[in-house]
Amino acid sequence: MLNDDHTGDPVRYAGGQPEPRAPLTSDAAVAQVMKGLWGEPQLAGITTTSTPSGLEVAVTLTRNDERMPDAWLADLAVGAVGELVHSDQAEANDLILSATAVGPGKRGDPITTDLGVGAVRLGQVFGSPSDPTLAAQADSGSLPARTSASVPSTVARRGAGRRSSPRAASR
User: Fold this and answer.
1) Residues 142 and 79 in one domain
2) Does 39 have pLDDT greater than 90?
3) pLDDT of residue 19
4) What would the pLDDT profile of 125-137 be if each residue is shown by its tens digit?
5) Measured on CA atoms in the order 47, 49, 55, 56, is the torsion positive or negative?
6) 105: domain CATH number?
7) Are the CB atoms for 134 and 151 separated by under 8 Å?
8) Higher model confidence: residue 168 or residue 143?
């Protein structure tokens, strides 16, 4: 039997909502997400299609052998697009009808993977130091050992100006 009891939040919320902003068009959101993920060589493109039922998002990858990093990167891109285009929708699945990752598999054959959009609350704000602060902590070695290897891969591009990737950080 599963235990559903929730005894605490796994993350610390900042206790507020983001500053109100006008939603972006799908094209503008895709451009911003592609720019923000420029250091991810596996990300080849993002396309969106608006339907009466919701937004369909397809993430094109340079490879899609259905490993966790492939799905994670595609899910990250889909979530970022959703955050930028949402207006009054409360959850990602209120906005995004479907999401897929497409790209060549291990043998070169085209693989399409359905991504789980889920009931992720849009507009959440998490309590975390700024990117420059995290980059400075990573550079100085003052982050806890279990996280300092992963922070430069996500922060260094923006905060410290270095180019890195999750694969390089884990080596």
Assistant:
1) no
2) no
3) 63
4) 666 777 788 788 8
5) negative
6) 3.30.70.2960
7) yes
8) 143
Shared domain for 102 and 36, answered yes or no, is yes
In a domain, 146, yes or no: yes
Closest CA to 72 of 29, 50, 43: 43
Q: How many CB atoms lie within 10 A of CB 77?
A: 26
What pLDDT is attached to residue 126?
62
**Ordered DSSP codes for 19-35:** PP-PPPPHHHHHHHHHH
No. of helices (H) and no. of strands (E), the chain: 7, 4
Number of domains in the chain: 2
Q: What domain range includes position 136?
A: 131-164
Phi, psi of 43 (to 5 degrees): -85, 115
The structure tokens 């369909």 sit at 56
Cα separation, 2 vs 51, whole angstroms: 37
Q: How open is the CA angle 110-115-116, to the nearest 5 degrees?
A: 165
Q: What is the pLDDT of residues 51-67, one digit of tens each?
A: 999 999 999 999 987 67
| Nearest-angstrom CA–CA distance, 46 and 102 | 10
| Residue 20 banded pLDDT, cuts 50, 70, 90 | low
